Amino acid sequence: MNPAAPLLFFDSGIGGLSVLGPTRTLLPNAPIVYAADSAGFPYGPRSEAEIAARVPALLGRLVERFRPRLAVIACNTASTIALDAVRAALDLPVVGTVPAIKPAATLSRSRVIGVLGTEATVRQPYVDDLASRFAADCTVLRHGSAELVAIAETKLGGETVTVDSVRCAVQPLLDQANGDRMDVVVLACTHFPLLGDELRAALPGTALVDGGAGIARRIATLTRDQPWPDAPREGHAVFTGGTPGPALAAALRRFGLSSSSAF
User: Fold this and answer.
1) Among 5, 97, 166, 234, which one is least packed by beta carbons within 10 Å?
2) How many CA within 13 A on the CB side of residue 218?
């Protein structure tokens, strides 16, 4: 294994940074390539057929260009729709991102949990399967919010976002039957942990669960005993829709991604 072979993170936008962050903590010397399909953003309103065709094709090009040791689909929507196809197409380990329903059910005392994701994620049979396997005794409420994804992108782009705007975006989840009893919410979109402070203020007394730390541990396990560079290196970010503006570039630098380019 070449020590310089990177970990490849893929998302429709900047949500995958919530997975990259805990991975950096566990594997500080790991070379990183972060790929954002900004030309296809957002995935939530797109059809399953579009995502199933687009994601494997893009990842195939990225793997050919960067020769990673492992790929991470740091996007719940892409994972719930295209993970199997990507694994079949690529000759390397592929880690997906799926809603953290199992730990949410473990935490819940009221037995009412929420799943907050994109429109495409919350309607997937994959989510039905997770709920039946790990939360059969729970009421599972779902809400898909394209607005909340856009708010997260706005925040990372350097603009101010308000708790009121986040509260309005999540209100449909609370308005459902038994919404007042909900004590755990699964952040089933990697964008949403980037709004952690705002979501905690908008959902007081509600535990928020996401899969970022668990995915980081899975990456560390799959790359155990592999060689890494002797010191941390700056990561590389690529965007299908062109290079980011100065504010987003500054946010990327906070995650160790100091160079960016179009893909």
Assistant:
1) 234
2) 18
Number of domains making up the chain? 2
Do both 125 and 187 map to the same domain? yes
Per-residue tokens: 20? 């990259």
Q: Is 75 a catalytic residue?
A: yes
Neighbours of 164 (CB within 10 A): 11
Residue pLDDT, tens place only, 78-108:
999 999 999 999 999 999 998 999 999 999 9
Is 44 found in the same domain as 108? Answer: no
Whether residue 67 is found in the same domain as residue 140: no
Q: How would residue 251 be classed by pLDDT, with cut points 50, 70 and 90?
A: confident
Range of the domain at 171: 101-210
Q: What is the CATH number of the domain that holds 48?
A: 3.40.50.1860
Kindly state whether residue 83 falls inside one of the protein's structural domains: yes
Q: What is the mean pLDDT of residues 100-128?
A: 94
b/e map 63-88, b = 16+ CB within 10 Å: beebebbbbbbbbbbbbbbbbebbbe
Same domain, yes or no: 223 and 254:
yes
| Pair (161, 136) in one structural domain | yes
Reported confidence tier of residue 44, pLDDT bands at 50, 70, 90: confident
Q: Where is 140: in which H helix or E strand? A: strand 139-144
Summarised one tens digit per residue, pLDDT across range 166-188 is 999 999 999 999 999 999 999 99
> Which candidate in 112, 189, 194, 237 is catalytic?
189
What is the C-alpha to C-alpha distance for residues 4 and 162, in angstroms, rounded to an integer?
Answer: 41
Q: Which residues pair with 140 in a beta bridge?
A: 113
* For residues 208-215, average pLDDT: 95
Contact 262, 238 (CB under 8 A): yes
In a domain, 232, yes or no: yes
Is 138 one of the catalytic residues? Answer: no
